[in-house]
Amino acid sequence: MKQKQLERKLQKKLRVRFGDAVQVSVEGRIIRVSGSLKRWEDIIEACSMCVIKQPGVHVVNDVVFSGGVRAPMRTPGFTDETLEGRRPDVLVIGGGVSGCSIARELTRWKLDVLLVEKEADLALQASGRNDGEVHPGVDLGRGTVKQQYVRKGNAMFDGICRELDVPFRRCGQYVCFADKMTLPLIRMYAWQRRTVCGVTDTQIISAKELYRREPALRPGFAFALYNPSAGCVCPYGLTIAYGENAAANGAQISLNTAVLGMEVREGRIRSVKTNRGTVHPKLVINAAGVFAEDISAMAGDRFYSIHPRRGTNSILDKKAGSLVKSIASIKLLSGNTAHTKGGGILHTVHHNLLVGPNAAETYEKENFATAQADIDEVFAKQKQTSDGLSERDIITYFTGVRAATFEEDFVIERGRRTRNLIHCAGIQSPGLTTAPAVAVDVAALAVRMLGGEGRVRKNESFQPVRRGIPQVRNLPRRERDRLIKENPDYGVIVCRCEEISRGEILDALKSPVPVFTTDGVKKRVRPGMGRCQGGFCLPLVTQIISEYVGVPAEEVKKSGPDAVISYGRKGAAYDGL
Amino acid sequence: MTVYDVLVIGGGPGGLAAAISAKKNGADVLLLEREARLGGILKQCIHDGFGLLRFGEKLSGPEYAGRFEDEFHSRSIAYEVQTFVTAILKKKDGFLVRAVNRQGVQEYRTKTLILATGCRERTAKQVAIHGTRPAGIFTAGCAQHFVNLMGQMPAKRCVILGSGDIGLIMARRLTLEGAKVLGVYEVKPEPSGLTRNLIQCLEDYDIPLYLSRTVTRVFGTERLTGVETMRVDEEMRPIPGTKERISCDTLILSVGLIPENEIAEELGVPLDPKTKGPVCDNRFMTMTEGVFSCGNAMHVNDLVDYVSESGEIAGAAAAAYTRADRRLISLKTDDSMLYLVPQRLDLSGGCGGLTLYFRSRESLTEGTLLISVDGREVFRKNYRNLKPPEMERLTLDTSGFGLTEQSGVRLSIVKGGDRV
Question: Which residues of A are less than 8 Å from B156 in CB distance?
């Protein structure tokens, strides 16, 4: 029997490496690894050893991690009854780019859509902690789900960013090679990518052309692999825009709302318990990122595992922005981990440079702490791409956690055992690129599962166009003048580094998914994103939020309910900006 | 459109002094301030100690600024508040300054510019602090804004990193308002603030100062719950095995100030990597004709009295400015000085009263400033207690130095006093 054969083969491999500590069983399309190991790296290795390249077959990690404590999911520290008894057609779990784009596509239909996000804002985990690259897909081999979607998604970006009023630059990507001898090999590779994988824009350009376009790259590159279709976008900007457009079209977005449990009977989710009440959805979409496996377990439909992988990026001052105008990275023929492109230097839509990310396995899904070693690793590598790169230009850095499956592929399919469930899981790079295309397919699947077009009617009043907050600083002089004369608050600059006006901050507070925190305002209109990192504007933004919402300044938080900025009044009156 | 003789950007102590001085010298002056009120950072500096040199009395920041504002208004100098400069274009006979305010996009023409844009604070990320990103990490000036302007208490149990003056002032301020300041950590083996602040803000309140120690990591997901400190070696690298975790809700950073010269850079004004301000001549004109600099935008001063003085020099010079070829020579220094301002001397208009500002690299109980021209000593002065945090100021008559455009002028500090 094939299944037993595979099981024996895998067990043998595991025994050589781990003795009797781990066992494997093959149950249909699930390869379950169990036992107990002390080191997380060993668990990753054991599970990775059991991966077989067969569509739909997944490794499930049941190995007990005896060497550490995996913290439970962080949840909002409060409960209320806001959602109690809600009966949405679709419950989307997760306010990242997957969840928000799916919610938006669902609002094309007359459906009651509820999106829950446990954090205080959208895009606070992987979707807000990545490099914002819109990938050309040149690094992906054929046959994976993500490869299927990457070209489709990439091609949609011009349209979707125009509709959602999100800045997008199709800036191109250069992968630079120093060794001339590799040229024939890379030529073959480029040909294969163009003709077999459908990455039709793949080209090879000469060193001369490379330096003409990117003169500040390190001297000595022989040629580069070039994909003009690569681009960059603000990842949380896109996510928030999707969320806002969904909300404007009738979806309900409930922040600070964590899914705590589910009642599943006869292969259907009957109710979903959250800290804000129990809801009874007809259909559930699992877009829970690093917690997608946990959600699948609650739903009785766990057939894949997520192993978190950290990555750290640095943001450099706009003054360094001229070093790289597109996306560039060096290709080292050794030492590259198989599952990431290996980071690079990216000129962001806001004209900073972004350097990174690296990749490191971790058992902690929500540890976003940075470490100097990560920055050092990234800079050591990327200085080989551009030697003008300097740590001195760093204005901030951040860590994100990727939601990788052991197959390193996406899981986009309906529940296997639970019938009113769709998984959108294992979404890591290039998940931002694929999101627009995945969302269309998931929404279509959802409509089919809810009875098809016969039962679900089109939302005739769907408005695909969102008007973003004007970026007043980038407007032509006359336009800016006109806008200020209409609303003088656009002429009062609150954030001096990024030149953000009071009017833009108030717009953020009035937006369809308003978040009355200083981080929420920062994510939407950028005060505090510049070189002073909020030193000057944090008190001013706090004050504006406090006045707008009508609460004392001490009730304005940085992010979550416990992210207290100030402990309360001490006496004097304030008459600042 | 009115063409001003002098347009001052910034209404803090440097800009106010520059505008008054330019007006006194007969110029038609306009001052632009981005905040709602004049006074710059002094508005939030409610402690005393300002103006000892200039007025012979201890004033608070707002009082000090008030004296200049009174004079500024009494001379009917034109100004705009809440007006933010967005671009400056060089024109044939001066500059076109574009700004925004509540009325719209404004344009002003001027023959000369004085950049009095002050400085900003270095941030946690610039001193490589790692860990999470909770609330409760503030630069000292930011915390000062909360306490002194908004009447809000941002701290209960607090660690201060950096012994810069604002950090020391905030240690006292927060203590007076009921917070517990657990200690001030300084990565260098010596404190960076003024001696008087060490005594009046730390010693008088029993706040410990830990030298050669730094904060390496922060903890807490929503609000800060603690920091990790480490001892550092002579190269200021953390020493393994010296980690200590301190539980606190606030980290205040006083880790240095950086002159704000984004406007200057856009104009192509060359900066001095040592001061991070523009390279200036003895009239505080930058290497770009018609563009002057003063105050903390030129270099970070320790006393506001010097900020005002540099504003006055720049203001008078801008008022008197006529385009003429400068005959510039460099004032060269060596490693004995952290920096010297000005960096150039213009021989064309006579340079009798030259005002110099410098900081010694090392702390010296006795030191001597030597000035030589082509290897020949032309000036010396003995100093007691030279310290990097305490800037020295000197006025000189260079008319007897026999300077020509070929002269090589060097300034250095040597250890020891009269016997050198």
Answer: 567
